[in-house]
Here is the input.
Amino acid sequence: MAKTVRGMVEEALTLVTTYSVDEARALHGQPGVQFVDIRDPRELEREGAIPGAFHAPRGMLEFWIDPESPYHKPILNQKDTRYVLFCAGGWRSALAARVMQEMGVQGVAHLHGGFGAWKAAGAPMVEPKPRAPKPAA
Here is the structure.
């Protein structure tokens, strides 16, 4: 295998700013700072979320960043915005932050330990909202 996931994450961590939970908490809610949750929708339903975070599932990130994509979301490519990406544990967000940098987005960082570390630290969160059960047929 030419590259491993661990190797890719380690490389991304040398190129991407990493915030501790305390550093991220100090930025949370500040003007010009956008938290970006790249977890799968089922993870949000199960675990909860960081208040005010924009949800951009990892599988759509590149499509949502690119202004030429039919799926573009302008919130993910704003000048003078500092982005703090997070996933469950910090690996996917490190890779995603690196991709954002490669695509030319400035001010990108990620949260060390991800949402798990945020939650364990007692940082503000929105409780999970499980889906309503499907009606019986």
